[in-house]
């Protein structure tokens, strides 16, 4: 089939639509229970069925759909910039997790609102689209729901896949279903990728080459995380002149390695304080036990305890304060990388002026880390001993550490131009206001 010929619905897509209708009651029960357990009101829970809890604003509406916290927050700077370029435009963000909704609400750009996305069933999607009538739909990273895409496009809404990222496993899976892959990708008017590798993969999966535009990682151009000056001042005052390092976004199986590294560091730097911020704050009690089992003194932020002059580990098990910790200390180990977890966004600490240490399990950011380590903006470690050596080097060699921070800052500064190009490309797809 010629790549110029519009792709048609496939048997697999039809089977998916049928299966989604069958499992919809079970899926609804599961997602509704999760939202209710979080304490959300019923009208917000019912957004997953396509029932809007807010009115549609007048004017042209640009809809962004993202999977979770990182993807949702990554578009806020882009929305702000688009809003400045198109002052009459309104914005809608959909994301599936209560945590993302909570954080978005705190940082919402002007003329923006949040809803939970409809389940990917015909009834829920049609109800959602009938109410919101988006003029442009932007899907972030790899959150592709087939019926949501097909039905939005059929309704006349131009679609963009933004910050596209696909794992090798996902690419191989789609290549086994080439006609369906092409049909889904054919719904997009524009596909903006994080890197050249993803651009090549999308084309190999059947996306039209003329619709693919390689870009950079959207998260690299996001605004810095918020900083609470009061909290920063209090914690800094309590720690005093002691040296500090930060271990952020750590997961199960990583804290033990970090704590082992800290014990090694304390032999040469007995007054060193570790600020440990687990990725999931609800694991605070578990992590506190790990700290005590390691024989280290601990102050736990969620209990309102401040670090003292002898506190060896300050356990920052709270949500939304990471920007404050990066402002406190620019020497950051970023978790999700000492195990094969995929890594986390290195741009957030770098935007705060930090240099980054990572493990080797950062496959979601492999190309980014390759560039950062080559530039000297990041360092890679494999073990507790490696981690301790790298932290010690940056503590003991301030010129080397400053050079790493400078390299990180230069990388971030190069992303602003790319963001402006993305804004222009999206606004070019925004149609004239519908009657």
From TrEMBL:
The active site is at residue 71. Pathway: Bacterial outer membrane biogenesis; LPS core biosynthesis. Gene3D superfamilies: 3-Deoxy-D-manno-octulosonic-acid transferase, N-terminal domain (3.40.50.11720), Glycogen Phosphorylase B (3.40.50.2000). GO terms for molecular function: Kdo transferase activity. Residues 247-408 form the Glycosyl transferase family domain. InterPro entries: Glyco_trans_1 (IPR001296), Glycos_transf_N (IPR007507), Glycos_transf_N_sf (IPR038107), Kdotransferase (IPR039901). Residues 43-220 form the 3-deoxy-D-manno-octulosonic-acid transferase N-terminal domain. The record marks 141, 219 as: Transition state stabilizer. Pfam families: Glycos_transf_1, Glycos_transf_N. It catalyses: lipid IVA (E. coli) + CMP-3-deoxy-beta-D-manno-octulosonate = alpha-Kdo-(2->6)-lipid IVA (E. coli) + CMP + H(+). GO terms for biological process: lipid A biosynthetic process; lipopolysaccharide core region biosynthetic process. Its EC number is 2.4.99.12. GO terms for cellular component: cell envelope; plasma membrane. Its main location: other. It is found in: Cell envelope; Cell membrane. Belongs to the glycosyltransferase group 1 family. Glycosyltransferase 30 subfamily. This is 3-deoxy-D-manno-octulosonic acid transferase.
């Amino acid at each position: 089939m010629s790549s110029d010929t519009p792709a048609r619905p496939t048997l697999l897509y039809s089977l998916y639509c049928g299966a989604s209708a069958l499992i919809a009651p079970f899926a609804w029960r599961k997602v509704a229970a999760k939202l209710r357990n979080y304490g959300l009101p019923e009208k917000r829970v019912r957004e997953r069925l396509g029932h809007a809890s807010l009115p549609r604003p007048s004017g042209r509406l640009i809809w962004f759909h993202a999977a979770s916290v990182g993807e949702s927050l990554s578009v806020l700077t882009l929305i702000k910039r688009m809003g400045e370029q198109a002052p009459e435009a309104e914005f809608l963000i959909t994301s599936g997790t209560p945590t993302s909704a909570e954080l978005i609400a705190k940082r919402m750009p002007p003329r923006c609102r949040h809803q939970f996305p409809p389940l990917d069933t015909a009834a829920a999607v049609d109800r959602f689209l009938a109410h919101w009538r988006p003029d442009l739909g932007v899907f972030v990273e790899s959150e592709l729901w087939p019926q949501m895409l097909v039905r939005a496009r059929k309704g006349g809404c131009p679609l963009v896949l933004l910050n596209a990222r696909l794992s090798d496993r996902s690419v191989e899976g789609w290549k086994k279903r080439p006609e369906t892959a092409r049909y889904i990708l054919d719904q997009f008017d524009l596909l903006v990728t994080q890197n050249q590798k993803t651009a090549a993969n999308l084309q190999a999966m059947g996306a039209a080459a003329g619709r693919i535009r390689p870009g950079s990682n959207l998260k690299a151009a996001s605004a810095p995380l918020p900083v609470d000056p009061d909290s920063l001042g209090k914690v800094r005052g309590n720690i005093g002149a002691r040296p500090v390092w930060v271990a952020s976004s750590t997961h199960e199986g990583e804290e033990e390695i970090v704590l082992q590294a800290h014990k090694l560091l304390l032999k040469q730097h007995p007054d060193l304080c570790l600020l440990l911020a687990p990725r999931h704050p609800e694991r605070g009690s578990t992590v506190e036990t790990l700290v005590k089992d390691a024989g280290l003194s601990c102050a736990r932020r969620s209990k309102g305890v401040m670090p003292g002059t002898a506190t060896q580990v300050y356990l920052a098990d709270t949500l939304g304060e990471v920007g404050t910790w990066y402002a406190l200390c620019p020497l950051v180990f970023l978790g999700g990388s000492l195990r094969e977890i995929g890594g986390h966004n290195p741009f957030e600490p770098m935007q705060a002026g930090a240099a980054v240490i990572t493990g080797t399990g950062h496959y979601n950011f492999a190309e980014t880390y390759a560039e950062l380590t080559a530039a000297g903006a990041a360092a890679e470690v494999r073990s507790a001993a490696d981690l301790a050596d790298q932290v010690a080097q940056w503590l003991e060699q301030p010129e080397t550490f400053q050079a790493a921070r400078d390299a990180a800052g230069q990388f971030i500064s190069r992303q602003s131009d790319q963001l402006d190009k993305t804004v222009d490309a999206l606004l070019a797809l925004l149609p004239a206001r519908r009657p």
